[in-house]
UniProtKB/TrEMBL annotation:
Family named by the database record: Belongs to the Orn/Lys/Arg decarboxylase class-II family. LysA subfamily.
Subunit structure: Homodimer.
Name under which the protein is recorded: Diaminopimelate decarboxylase
Gene name as annotated: lysA
Source organism: Flavobacterium aureirubrum
Binding site for pyridoxal 5'-phosphate: G218, Y356
Domain called Orn/DAP/Arg decarboxylase 2 N-terminal: residue spans: 24-266
Cofactor dependency: pyridoxal 5'-phosphate
């Protein structure tokens, strides 16, 4: 997308505003499927927690994607967006058994990462196929909050507990149809991923009626010019070869599954915010915008960096700014960042705002959540209306004492 397109959408739909480029999502999806084109049975399950707008879900469904969900509500959204139950996998963590039962009744693939839950479910529903999430004890990911496959992680059943899994399966006569792992997000070294894959292959040998192996995702995207990213093409070449060799060894046709979220939607997203104030202190120039961590929390939560551009003055002389929000706590988006000269009323654009941005937005300070727009075929389409005071008051009850 061009700055002129973004400014046009800013004027049409107001600020703050989330914009998603449909073409970029399509390109990322095809890039992944092309990388694994030698695998006959490939399944991409979009991790919808990254961005769950139903129009985005529908777009990915039309590309051929399945869906990775972590809550009953995500499952219901997926069904509402047009996914059939057989295209959805449910991978919860720490939810109630009742929630797992509700999802199972919908016909969705269940993925379990807890021994006690596995035994309970197998005892009660031995004929329902179940996938098992293992913890490979491999550290991967760019931040401890998004590294989920290490030994101290709350996710997955330890590979050292495979004998316990086998005992439960034998006792309950339950059907294990898949094995799953997820090491974490922002994977830099594909050799680490391939090492974890070997652990998954070894675990799979213990189960003779598998239909699929799910390798999670966590592929890193570039956040700035020249930034490192996961080499999907190299990973596709190496893992495809190893997967096909394992399939022959296993003696049964298998589906290779992934669950990308950020990889598909991050670079497609733009977040626009208007500059309310320029504030000069003794050592810092602050650019205060009409947003805060209520709309985009990742820089404060993960320390993530988003490229920030002044699309109102893209050719202006660069100066150093600290970009901050309007929340009555520290909500700093960037410290001493070089940005084209900013004036009050300018519109700033945050790149890589497609994943874990709107989906983590809140109404903190009783602020409204922004609108969302899909950019497709040279036109902007409103896919979520900006909230109003009615949305803030909805479900609240005023008691008149």
């Amino acid at each position: 997308m061009q700055s002129t397109d973004l400014l046009k959408l800013s004027e049409e739909f107001g600020n703050p505003l989330y914009i998603y480029d449909a073409t970029k999502i399509e390109q990322q999806y095809h890039r992944l499927t092309d990388a694994f084109s030698k695998v006959p049975a490939l399944r991409i399950n979009y991790a919808m927690k990254a961005l769950s707008n139903i129009t985005i879900l529908h777009l990915l469904k039309n590309l051929g994607s399945g869906l990775d969900t972590v809550s009953l509500q995500e499952v219901e959204l997926g069904l509402h967006a047009g996914f059939t139950p057989d295209k959805i996998i449910f991978t919860p963590n720490g939810v109630s058994f009742e929630e797992i039962e509700e999802v199972a009744k919908l016909g969705v693939q269940i993925n379990i990462d807890n021994l006690s839950v596995l035994e309970h479910f197998g005892t009660k529903y031995p004929k329902t196929p179940v996938c098992i999430r293992i913890n490979p004890h491999v550290m991967a990911g760019g931040n401890e909050n998004i590294s989920v496959g290490h030994i101290d992680s709350k996710f997955g059943i330890s590979i050292y507990q495979i004998p316990h899994i086998i005992r439960i399966v034998e006792n309950t006569k339950m059907h294990i149809n898949g094995i799953h792992m997820h090491t974490g997000s922002d994977i830099l070294d594909i050799e680490v991923f391939l090492y974890a894959a070997e652990i998954l292959f070894d675990a799979a040998k213990n189960f003779k009626q598998l239909d699929f192996l799910d390798f999670g995702s966590g592929f890193k995207v570039p956040y700035k010019k020249g930034d490192i990213e996961t080499n999907i093409e190299e990973l596709g070449k190496k893992l495809s070869k190893r997967f096909l060799a394992f399939e022959k060894e296993y003696g049964r046709k298998l589906t290779l599954a992934f669950e990308p979220g950020k990889f598909l939607v991050s670079e497609a997203g733009y977040f626009l915010a208007k500059v309310n104030v320029i504030k000069q202190t003794t050592s810092t120039v602050f650019a205060g915008i009409d947003s805060g961590f209520n709309h985009l929390i990742r820089p404060m939560f993960y320390g993530s960096q988003h490229v920030i551009e002044n699309i109102s003055n893209p050719k202006g002389k660069e100066r150093f700014y600290t970009v901050v929000g309007y929340i009555c706590e520290t909500d700093t988006f960037a410290n001493n960042r070089k940005i084209a000269e900013i004036h009050e009323g300018d519109v700033l654009c945050f790149r890589n705002a497609g994943a874990y941005c709107f989906s983590m937005a809140s109404n903190y300070n009783s602020r409204f959540k922004p609108a969302e727009v899909l950019w497709k075929d040279g036109k902007g389409y409103l896919i979520r209306e900006r909230e109003t005071m009615d949305d803030i008051l909805k479900n609240q009850i005023l008691l008149d004492f």
